[in-house]
Amino acid sequence: MPYPGTLDVDLTGATAVVTGSTRGIGRALTELLLASGARVIGLQRGTDSLGPGHTCLSVDLADPAARADAVDAVLADHEIDILVNNAGINLRHTVEDFPRDEFSQVMSINLDAVVHLTQAFGRPMLERGHGRIVNIASMLSFFGGVKASAYAASKGAVAQFTKSVANEWAGRGVAVNAVAPGYIATELNVALREDPERNGEIIGRIPAGRWGSAEDIAGTVLFLCSGGADYVHGTVLPVDGGYLAR
Ligand code: NDP
């Protein structure tokens, strides 16, 4: 490794909420936040704590009432400094056959939950005059894809939501940004990686010549939570091995 290690960010005393903290990108990020000294409250259905400093609340983010209960429970005991809206799903159908309930489910988890949690955790951040919010978008925030109408619609909306909130909150101490991952090897895309032909096609289109890792995304989110990103507002930052540069 020519550039070993990661950012040396001290988040001692900070409390972060990370949705989807137990698997994939959210898990790698939670491990990095814990290593940086932050406490992490994970909101997802699973409840497996990663260790000291990591508390899990079981919540189905598709359910607005469950989201509201989780927000109340968190805010009753904690001041939140960092919110990472990471949890997301991808359901794939051609648009003419997309069941409306499945389309709504994608929008509910990938977009409505992001809006809801940004409002709920953002208000106290605005009152205190500081906070960081990072939304996990996607390359499909920038373009569409086959069988991706719901996912791309949700992620495109997350990107524009991020920029709009930043317009309102950048001058009030709360930095709102998004990271747009490219192809990242997680449970979300096991099927693609297990198909040798598809896997070869994908790697062939990535200038870096490999799938990204969850840690690649986590490091960028940590940067956006650090003092080094004080003047970064409303960006949707691709972390994609150069995919969008082609
Ligand atoms: P994973 O499938 O590995 O993890 C998804 C996480 O979301 C899990 O922790 C899961 O927890 C949580 N989650 C899913 N559904 C719900 C729900 N209904 N309620 C609460 N939590 C839920 O995904 P990734 O780590 O790959 O993806 C993380 C984010 O990155 C997503 O927003 C995804 O769209 C985005 N992304 C990923 C890319 C990739 O290539 N992997 C590329 C571009 C963007 P649980 O099941 O316990 O509820």
Provide keyphrases for this structure.
alpha/beta; 246 residues; 7 helices; binds NADPH dihydro-nicotinamide-adenine-dinucleotide phosphate; Rossmann fold; 7 strands; 15% strand
Q: What can you see in these coordinates?
A:
The chain is an alpha/beta fold. The protein has a single domain, classed as 3-Layer(aba) Sandwich (Rossmann fold), CATH 3.40.50. Helix content is 41%, strand content 15%. It has a 7-stranded parallel β-sheet with strand order 3-2-1-4-5-6-7, sandwiched between helices. β1, α1 and β2 form a beta-alpha-beta unit. α1 crosses α7, α2 runs parallel beside α3 and α3 runs parallel beside α4. The mean pLDDT is 97. The protein binds NADPH dihydro-nicotinamide-adenine-dinucleotide phosphate. The site of NADPH dihydro-nicotinamide-adenine-dinucleotide phosphate has 27 residues, from α1. Pfam families: adh_short_C2 (PF13561).
